[in-house]
Amino acid sequence: MLRRATASDADAIADVLTAARAAQAWFPPLHSPEETRGFVRERLLPGHDTWVAESEGRVVAFAAITDDHLDHLFVHPDAQGRGIGTALLEHTRQLLPEGFSLWTHQASEARAFYEARGLVAVEFTDGATTMERIPDVRYEWRPRAPGAPGSSGR
């Protein structure tokens, strides 16, 4: 079930983010779980349109959007491979029908996920300006114009 996040979801969202980051062996541990909780409470929820996915009454994933940018999409490692990330990405497409962009790290397993779902890499950086100092990549999703190859023409 997808629903808009509330302030009471902050700790559960932080737990998803902490677990997902910890599962990425290449990602440096930058923040403690308590710092992540503070980030979610003080910055993520107040500054983003945040959606959560629940399974068996537990928050297992979230997506956070600002303007035409998907800033965060994370699925708890225990819930990956069940279509939850795809559901959140599709929901983002419905919320942003004119298209959107997102950043991820070049080393991220998420790249294959995004590319398999039609997002296109449009910019690569060396990571020098990021907090992590890890090379990253910007992806975009733009809807196909009516009559374009692969569109229904309607």
Describe this structure in words.
This protein has a 4-stranded antiparallel β-sheet, sandwiched between helices. The longest helix is centred in the N-terminal third of the chain and has 15 residues, at 33-47. The model is unreliable at 150-154 (pLDDT under 50). It has a single domain (2-141), classed as Gcn5-related N-acetyltransferase (GNAT) (Aminopeptidase, 3-Layer(aba) Sandwich), CATH 3.40.630. It has helices spanning 10-22, 33-47, 84-95, 110-116; strands spanning 2-4, 49-55, 58-66, 69-75, 100-105, 120-124, 136-141. Strand 3 and strand 4 (69-75) form a beta hairpin. It is α+β, with helices and mostly antiparallel strands and 154 residues long. The two termini are 30 Å apart.
Write the layout of secondary structure elements.
Blueprint: E1 2-4, H1 10-22, H2 33-47, E2 49-55, E3 58-66, E4 69-75, H3 84-95, E5 100-105, H4 110-116, E6 120-124, E7 136-141
Antiparallel strand pairs: 1-2, 2-3, 3-4, 5-7, 6-7
